[in-house]
């Protein structure tokens, strides 16, 4: 069984989402010692954002020579995702949504014919067999019923994207309010880490 671990926070060791995603992976590794783990840090090895040349190459047009390494990176990222049975994603909220580094990764994973296809009844996800666990960190409180709920475009976006490719039951561990104050941060992180240790085995 293979696990793909993705981190996207720019805060390094100070990141809550990184701490929680690492705890998730540790829990699954302890439960299944034979688990094969691949790790990709999207801030250490960032992917370029899509350009017209990328889209043209995807349609079969000749790619400029300078785009070659990036197209190879795209293929590697997609293959990592396709090969994984479990995907763990560290996703902090930046300005009410996902980091741009994570968006660039998603753009390489949502590929027609690979993770979704269009049929007579519309789009059909092709990645339905995967287990996806997302570690979310948010500076404030954005849950249902909170004053800022309408600004929540992190969890909602990821649920929509994952459902589009066939992953309809992702698991979320959420640390909210980490910028409200030290006590809020400590309590939220502790609760998220506890939730990580309670995950079912791989």
Question: How does the SSE layout of this entry go?
Answer:
Blueprint: E1 2-7, H1 16-31, E2 36-41, H2 52-58, H3 68-83, E3 86-92, H4 100-109, E4 116-119, E5 122-125, E6 131-137, H5 155-164, E7 171-175, H6 182-197
Parallel strand pairs: 1-2, 1-3, 3-6, 6-7
Antiparallel strand pairs: 4-5
Question: Could you list some keywords that capture this structure?
Answer:
single chain, 202 residues, alpha/beta, Rossmann fold, five-stranded parallel beta sheet, two-stranded antiparallel ribbon, 6 helices, 7 strands, 37% helix
Overview of the structural elements:
The chain is α/β, with parallel strands linked by helices and 202 residues long. It has a single domain, classed as Flavodoxin domain (Rossmann fold, 3-Layer(aba) Sandwich), CATH 3.40.50.360. 37% of the residues lie in helices and 19% in strands. The protein contains six helices and seven strands, in the order βαβααβαβββαβα. The strands form two sheets. A five-stranded parallel sheet has the order 2-1-3-6-7, sandwiched between helices. α5 links the parallel β6 and β7 (171-175). α1 runs parallel beside α6 (182-197). The longest helix has 16 residues, at 16-31. It starts with a strand and ends in a 5-residue tail after the last helix. 31% of the residues are buried. The mean pLDDT is 95.
Overview in brief:
This protein has 202 residues and is of the alpha/beta class. It contains six helices and seven strands, in the order βαβααβαβββαβα. The strands form two sheets. The protein has a five-stranded parallel beta sheet, with helices on both faces.
């Amino acid at each position: 069984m293979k696990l793909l671990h993705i981190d996207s926070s720019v805060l390094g060791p100070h990141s809550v989402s990184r701490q929680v995603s690492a705890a998730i992976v540790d829990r699954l590794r302890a439960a299944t010692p034979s688990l094969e783990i691949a790790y990709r840090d999207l801030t250490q090895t960032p992917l370029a954002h899509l350009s017209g040349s990328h889209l043209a190459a995807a349609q079969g047009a000749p790619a400029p020579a300078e785009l070659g390494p990036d197209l190879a990176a795209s293929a590697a990222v997609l293959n990592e995702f396709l090969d994984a049975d479990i995907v763990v994603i560290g996703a902090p909220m930046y300005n009410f949504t996902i980091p741009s580094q994570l968006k660039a990764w998603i753009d390489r994973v949502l590929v027609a014919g690979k993770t979704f296809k269009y049929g007579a009844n519309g789009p059909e996800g092709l990645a339905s067999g995967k287990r996806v666990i997302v570690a979310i960190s948010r500076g404030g409180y954005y849950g249902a019923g909170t004053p800022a709920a309408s600004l929540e475009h992190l969890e909602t976006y990821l649920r929509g994207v994952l459902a589009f490719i066939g992953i309809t039951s992702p698991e979320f561990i959420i640390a909210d309010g980490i910028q409200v104050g030290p006590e809020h941060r400590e309590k939220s992180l502790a609760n998220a880490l506890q939730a990580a240790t309670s995950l079912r085995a791989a």
